[in-house]
Amino acid sequence: MKKILKIKNLSVSFKSENQALLFDAVKDISFDLYTGEVLGIVGESGSGKSVTALSILSLLQKNKAVYGAKSSIKLNNQELIGANESVLNEVRGGKIGFIFQEPMSSLNPLHKIGDQIAENILRHQKKNYDEAKKETVELLKIVGINNAKQRYNAYPFELSGGQRQRVMIAMAIANKPDILIADEPTTALDVTVQEQIINLILDLKQRFNMAVLFISHDLQLIKKIADRIVVMYQGEVVETNNADKLFLRPQHSYTKKLISSSLSLKKQEKQNKRMVASIKKLTVEYVLKKNFFGKAIQTLKALDNVSLSLYKGETLGVVGESGSGKTTLGMCFADLIRYEGKISIYKELDEKEFRKTVQIVFQDPYNSLNPRFNVFEIVSEGLRVHFDGLSEKEYQEKTVAMLKEVGMSEADLYKYPHEFSGGQRQRIAIARALILNPEIVVLDEPTSALDVTVQAQIVEMLKKLQNKYNMTYIFISHDMRAIKSISDRIAVMKDGKIVEMSKASDILQNPQKKYTKELIRASLV
Question: Could you tell me the residue range of the domain that residue 409 belongs to?
Answer without folding.
Answer: 310-522
